[in-house]
Amino acid sequence: MAMILKVFIMSGMMALADDVLISTQDNIVLISSETERVSVSLNTSNQLLKLVDDIKNQISGREILDNDRKQIEDILSETQNKISYVLKESGVEKKETDYNKALIKVRKALMDYFIKTNRYPKNIEELVPYFTDFIPEIDVHNEFNSRIKYIRTRDFDKNYSKAVDNSSEYLYFADPQSLYWGLFIINSNRMDKSGTAFYEW
Q: N or C: which end of the chain has fewer CB within 10 A?
């Protein structure tokens, strides 16, 4: 049966009922077996996997009735499997065959970041999860990936195209002193159907 896992910021509670509440310091995991689908935030799923392991370790060291402990461990194991499945499936969702949509997604997040902070991020990863849920994977080099090459110099201010070297999917100008600070482009000089290089998009 599919399960749902949510994290609540509370403290000092442990109970066994239809829903299972297990505390680990300031984190409480609510595990319900009454739902029909998995609902896990992709932004916190890695943390939740670690939390499940931490709770397992705590359970093994507590004086809990064997039947109760077995029930809890079974629930947590199934939950961990469900979260892993969600993570695997989420990788498909990150793939984008429309390069223009991928650029628009990240550029919008960059603009939102700039409006809020009055600067561009040092690293694109700072955009996740508050300004965008993920960086799209594109197959501009024949396999889906979202690698980013950072330009932290003004060496390419006269001609930014010279920074393009096809070594990653994206290229980001991260030097605040550069004329192109905040520019996010595709790191490819291949041509589209109209004869325009992808880095010019």
A: N
Do 119 and 190 belong together in one domain?
Answer: yes
**22-51 residues labelled b (16+ CB within 10 A) or e (exposed):** bbbeebbbebeeeeeebebebeebeebbeb
Q: What is the pTM of this model?
A: 0.57
Sign for the pseudo-dihedral over CA of 174, 124, 106, 165:
positive
Residues 112 and 83 in one domain: no
Considering the domain architecture, whether residues 32 and 84 belong to the same structural domain is answered as yes
Return the higher-pLDDT residue of 23 and 56.
56
Domain coverage including residue 59: 4-93
Place of tokens 């299972």: 20
Domain boundary at 93, 121, 140, which?
A: 93
